[in-house]
Design brief:
The structure is a homodimer. With about 300 residues, chain A is α+β, with helices and mostly antiparallel strands. The first copy, chain A, has nine helices and 14 strands. In chain A, helix 1 runs antiparallel to helix 2 and helix 2 runs antiparallel to helix 3. At the A-B interface, strand 3, strand 4, helix 4, strand 7 and helix 7 of A face strand 3, strand 4, helix 4, strand 7 and helix 7 of B. Strand 4 of chain A pairs antiparallel with strand 7 of chain B, so a sheet runs across the interface.
Chain lengths: ~300, ~300
């Protein structure tokens, strides 16, 4: 029996002061809920789905409700979930009217012979499965709308406006030694209609393989895709690096090659884990044994006992 | 100055006897045209685009005109193009009414800040760029329609019907030492609406990096995605394997791990090249120096001088 581990991130970038503590609270909560699910007999896959859904449902994160808007003021969401036991994967891209794309991605994995469904086909599949569709307005926060408006103004700096926003994700190892990952995002603010980023692409936004470990990434999607960041980090683990070394090496490569910052969480199949970022911030939390670890800035690693956190 | 190389494939699987020679003729033609473009001063990127467009336009290949149909009898095409010099990439997924998705993918790379556009967003972009849209019927061959109909019958075997169909792709090295890849497909016959396979996913259907080489893959898209086959082969090249060793190793891994056959073409930045497959057939052709190499079955490697082929 392995000691379970759950690690969660709330996106790399720069967090404004007013968001830091509430984001940290939510990623801790998501990691704890995922962990409790494993303690109750759930799988790594259940844990990463649960953690992702909690963050998708929280309006402060750029995933599910709270997602940024595309050039037309709409939400188009991307998500992936991957099972390290079978390499089974489900993903949805540019999906509309779905509050929890991670859940829909899991259905793609379990109920179809395919890996990725996009846009109209993903909606069609959701309807067939009786998966709940929601009005787009229910996913749009005033904060996302305001950011979109500012970006439409002449002289706006989309990169600057983007910088505090990030994808959410989770990785887990369960008692049976299975690893899994999930990643979910609203993408880039004011993105073109139909733009798909790294998140739903296997090896970009996530990768999970019981033979090595699992990774969820966050940052500039286009750069992450070009270096296949999640697969790159897993390759480094396959060659004997620890999750921390592998993630540092992968992020450093992306910076050297493309001058792009980002972050990632990783675990290996022995239960070693890491949360690393080259951006200013990334809210993250990890639970293993009876300890909770969390942080949001470089060198910021806080700990507490699980029992100290109210359920 | 490097000696240019262009390698082209017409898909892995099983080719019926009546298709073998005409497919071989077309991949030879595509490889030669790509090569001539480089000889006239074109880049590796120009060569892989040209070779892909030639095969997209030929109704015998599962790309562009001749693509298989989805469950609703429609064509939805995927394509990618990648520039090894910058890692710049363009991709389109589940795109309709486009005869040459590789050309549209190149526009995504060169005219947007994004990498992948999907479905409605890809169509919207095509309209904005004045890119030609075509009636879907112009892409549908009687052969594709017949296959789709047979698959709808009770007791049909979609895997058996799929087996002779494949993606098309090209890799090239130009005189400046730049590598590039392109891959284009109609996907799986009778696929679900919105199904996206490996082709447009960086590291799945293709990968190109001047620091190592370029790869284009073909086979079961879901399996290729799960092992990130193109990126895997490039990783092996990065670690010192020849294109042939790296491709054999990658294909063998996919077979061992997922019992899935496939094929790939690969070149490295020194001009070594390969065309490998674990399926029964893959039509391929390679041009370098004044020689043309081609084949369609295991151990079948034929050669001729370029001058022997009519322009």
């Amino acid at each position: 029996m392995m000691n379970p581990v759950v690690v969660v991130h709330g996106g790399s970038g720069r967090y404004t002061e007013d968001r830091k503590e509430v984001c940290l609270l939510e990623v801790r909560n998501a990691a704890l809920e995922g962990y409790r699910l494993i303690q109750q007999g759930g799988s790594a896959l259940d844990a990463v789905e649960e953690a992702s859904v909690i963050l998708e449902n929280h309006p402060l994160f750029n995933a599910g409700c709270g997602s940024v808007l595309n050039e037309c003021g709409e939400t188009e969401l991307d998500a992936i979930i991957m099972d390290g036991k079978t390499l089974g994967t489900g993903a949805v891209s540019a999906v509309r009217n779905i509050a929890n794309p991670t859940k829909l991605a899991r259905l793609v994995m379990e109920q179809t012979k395919h890996v990725m469904l996009t846009d109209r086909g993903a909606s069609r599949f959701a309807k067939t499965m009786g998966f709940p569709e929601v009005p787009m307005e229910s996913l749009v926060t005033e904060r996302a709308r305001e950011r979109w408006r500012r970006n439409l103004q002449p002289g706006s700096n989309p990169v600057e406006l983007q910088i505090e926003l990030g994808t959410i994700g989770a990785v887990a190892l369960d008692s049976d030694g299975n690893v899994a990952c999930a990643t979910s995002t609203g993408g880039l603010t004011n993105k073109m209609v139909g733009r798909v980023g790294d998140t739903p692409c296997i090896g970009g936004g996530g990768y999970a393989d019981n033979q090595s470990g699992a990774v969820s990434t966050t940052g500039n999607g286009e750069a992450i895709m070009k270096v296949t960041l999640a697969r790159l980090i897993v390759f480094h683990m396959e060659q004997g690096m620890s999750p921390a070394e592998a993630t540092d090496t992968g992020l450093q490569y992306m910076w050297t090659r493309l001058q792009s910052h980002g972050g990632a969480i990783a675990i290996n199949n022995a239960g070693d884990w890491t949360a690393k970022f080259t951006s200013e911030n990334m809210a993250w939390a990890a639970v293993t044994g009876d300890m909770l670890f969390y942080g949001i800035a470089l060198g910021d690693v806080r700990t507490s006992g699980i029992e100290d956190i109210p359920q």
